[in-house]
Write a structure and sequence with these properties.
The chain is an alpha/beta fold and 145 residues long.
Length: 145
């Protein structure tokens, strides 16, 4: 089994941007945490962060072609990208994807409560900090064994 861990716009700024909301953990730290958990589970894992919607969509297509599951923190694309949703629909019909948000998006500005991705995700984790990535990996590993 293999999982693609995707992070959308501005997540490359973790640890610097709004630490009062997102904490001090960097994206490199998140990737190391997930890699360690993946190793313990015997799961292959790849990482991608992009501020560009098309690059994320291309990666979803590659994951679908490979039969990979996906963990995605879509950042601001959560609330805006029908195109990303359309790409992820193919994953939803296969290995599945989990939508992850570090902050509790429902306790923030009202527009953050709407997600184009949540209705087709196998699960959504929000507000548990970077632990959400590990929980998503645990779930996908169990679901796809």
């Amino acid at each position: 089994m293999h999982v693609l861990v995707m992070n959308g716009p501005n997540l490359n700024r973790l640890g610097k941007r709004q630490p009062e909301v997102y904490g001090s953990t960097t994206l490199t730290d998140v990737e190391a945490l997930v890699q360690s958990r993946a190793d313990a589970l015997g799961v292959g894992v790849s990482f991608l962060q992009s501020n560009h919607e098309g690059e994320l969509i291309d990666a979803v297509h590659r994951a679908a072609d490979e039969g990979w599951a996906v963990i995605i923190n879509p950042g601001g694309f959560t609330h805006t990208s029908v195109a990303l949703r359309d790409a992820l629909a193919e994953i939803a019909d296969g290995q599945g994807f989990v939508e992850v948000h570090i902050s509790n998006v429902h306790a923030r500005e009202p527009f953050r409560s709407h997600s184009y991705l949540s209705p087709i995700a196998v699960g959504v984790i929000a507000g548990l900090g970077v632990k959400g990535y590990e929980l998503a990996l645990d779930y996908l590993a169990e679901r796809n064994r």
